Amino acid sequence: MIMLWAVFLPVLAGVLVLALKDMEGNRRVLTAAFTAVLTAEAALVILAVMRGGSVTLWRLTDTITLGFRIDRMGGLFAVLTSVIWLLAGIHSTAYMKHEHDERRFYGFYLIVVGVLSGLDFSADLITMYVFYEMMTLTSLPLVLHELTKEAVFAGLKYLFYSVAGAFLALFGIFFLANICGDLQFAAGGILTPEMAAGKEGILLFAVFAMIVGFGTKAGMFPLHGWLPAAHPVAPAPASAVLSGVITKAGVIAVIRVVYYVVGPAVIRGTWVQTVWMVLTLLTVFMGSVLAYREKVMKKRFAYSTVSQVSYVLFGLSLLQPAAFVGAISHVIFHSVIKDALFLFAGAVIVGTGWTRVEQLRGLGRIMPLTLAFYTLAALALIGIPPASGFVSKWYLAAGALASGTGVFSVAGPVVLLISALLTAGYLLPITIQGYFPGQDFDGREIEERNLAGKEPEPAMLIPIGILALASLLLGCFPGPILRLAQAIAETVF
Amino acid sequence: MYDLLMAVSVLLPILSGFLLLILNGPIKRGKHEREMEIGVEALVLVNSFLAAVLIAGTGGHSGNLVLFRLYGELTVMFRLDRMGSVFAGLVSFLWPLATLYAFEYMKHESRKPMFFAFYTMTYGVTMGVALAGNLVTMYLFYEMLTFVTLPLVLYPMTKEAARASRQYLYYSIGGAAFAFIGLVCVLSFSAIGTTEFTAGGMLNPDLAGQRKNLLLLVYVLAFFGFGVKAAIFPFHDWLPKASVAPTPVTALLHAVAVVKSGAFAVLRFTYFIYGTSFLRGTWAQWVVMGAALVTITFGSTMAAKEIHLKRRLAYSTVSNLSYILFGATVMTPWGLTAALIHMVAHAFMKICAFFCAGAVMHQTEKTYIHELNGLGRKMPVTFACFTVSGLSLMGIPLFAGFISKWNLAEAALSCGADAAAAGNPGAFMPYLGVGVILYSALMTGIYMMTVSVRAFFPSLVPGGAEEAAGKETGGKEPEATDPNWMMLVPLVTFVIVIIGIGLHSEPLMRILTLIGGEAG
Question: Is the pTM value of this prediction over 0.90?
Fold first, then answer.
């Protein structure tokens, strides 16, 4: 029962918020209720994951049954999602004060977290697909929120890419349902060679379609184009969860397909694995380069997401336990770090109205503490020990070297290293320019607008602080996460 | 008794329509309009009730009712079977709701008696197609359908309408001519001497086996002939043009009654005359399947390009009808089941979408998509219904469209696997079909969701803001609102059905699976 509450409470609360027009004038009640629901959601998810279990929801047709079952993989994603959602939610209560249509934002923000929990708890591929589509549709208003022409175009782009990806994946689901009958997740896959006898060629194509299709949400080349358009136009807390968490829904979908339905053995050594590795490495490199060249802060972070989420996908594509552990831990670390970065961007935008990187010179005089948190997160993303990014990248590189994938076992770590250099190149200048604006810096604007020393308000600062410290501490004490990831890896290989 | 009821449910609307034409004069002088509306609605309701009694009472198996004998073995005969029940049930569910909607929609129009006379007659004729017991009867009603709906397309009396109705006439008659070739041919190869519908086909295997290629050619001709009404490429052009007709006509006739009669006729011809065992795996199957796939692709692509809302929906109909035909050309029991579930699901989805478009035209007189900015906030119920029908058309799970697409795809994949196992060179076609359906689903997302997004999330560029704000910037036009109950009741009913089928399709699917089982 608890898991049903964890899925439906936020959805119901969100619908209620959307329906109650009177809440518009009553900001304090609205934000209090909003925060309370998010807190309850985090608690419910943790409780549900501790309890575990399974539940059958609904017989859709005589062959399709929707159901939830919590396993370690889903539980991990669900807890991560709800905790990050809460932190970004708290940030948004301060951020959205400066925006229009606050109520609509909160409403959809709540609905999406419920849908995501449902996606993580799904017991089979079709249930997951249902929630996957719902996630696209309910998160669309977050992208559209600003209602500028740019936002509407970005929203439509987001919608069409997501739907295209989902339909690519649906081809695979159609095919797998046809040969497997039942698509319940089981660690290591449910497909046996007899099921696919005579149809191996189409099977591989179907798996590839699913990887590319679900990979759309994770911003994988070639269907990544929506991400740098859609993430930055949303309000900052929404960009944070879109980039940090919703991209991971694409990741878990790919994990479920490859490791829980098809089984890694089916695609090991085939063209699917090769092409998949090529695509992810290409995405890693391209994302970093584009981030390096981008001057708008939020867009830069979005390109960084393109690159970083493909670290995860690269780890998954190696089909090797250590790389798998690296991928899972990078899911967590990247969620934490990227949310810190976007929430930082939100705090800067609210505090100063600056959006471009070159405007951020001298930011250290305005919000030194926030910038310090940013720097922590940036160092973690680059992968400087002992911060968290180092741990996951270590495992990714080690896994690649041990994977026996020929040229890729070397090319992978090289690309990761180059990308890490580029990451330093696109993140650290903000810190350096912020604290050390240089001799020629003209600080008049800061004085005129009386900005000096104005840290953001606590509702913004505290989530950023928590996330930044977490990105450091998770790297210092990665034991529990790695043990969990290793335990999962043992079941799927 | 039930046998007689079949004749009643066909003839009652037709005769009432004639009566209404006779009474045209007195009503036209502005009097008794209310009475006419109540009378028509009551009549349609009674007829639907009779149809319900008929279907429930016979359980989908009635006796034969021979109306009259044309010549020799050519009899006009009614017989209700399960597949006919599905179509008859669908039509009789939709007609009262559509009539209710039409009263409100046509409120300000003149020549109402004439409109409703033909509108009601079409009901009877469509029931005739559903209840026809043999090919001759079906052909007869099929031709009649063209003539009773022609005045409805012509109704606006504009040059455009005249051109559209002329095209409609030529296409339909031409198609019927091809269908006629099929009729004549199967009569001479029939195993039973008549053209009575027989589950699994009625061709004489010995005779037919000798002239296999001739018969296959005739099948392809008849497929395209009947397919004209189902708007198969390259004979689709009349359908988007015919959207000049009033919305109740476009919605009910050109999304359900007329076009589904075409699809229904193809199903009858394929599964009840030729029989799938004769056709499966032949070149004819791949030709007609290819035609359906081309139409799906073409229709949905054109819909995404079109900027006129009703024409966009009409192109969407072109594409969706070929989903049904695609199911038909899979030529397995499951294929027939899938075709029928899409026939039912699409009826509700598309009539809902058209009625929303009609409600917008009725309330605001806006017909182009770029004019819809921000209307969703003023007409929330209408656009919510539109969005539901759009999501369902896309095939999002939990809506009816997903169920039908699931079945179509699974049926096609099984067909492909069987064909591949048999070493048939056309085995790639069904797999391609699944890909085409998914491509079309993406296009559906584009052409339906852009409308919803535009309506609910107007971009706040100068122009958009003005339109969204409406009154504040001068108030050139009166504030639009949701239409009244006569329009909303049908809309909400359709939405409930769409979600109902999406969530709980098992009872319906059981019946359709039975039909597939006996005829496939």
Answer: yes
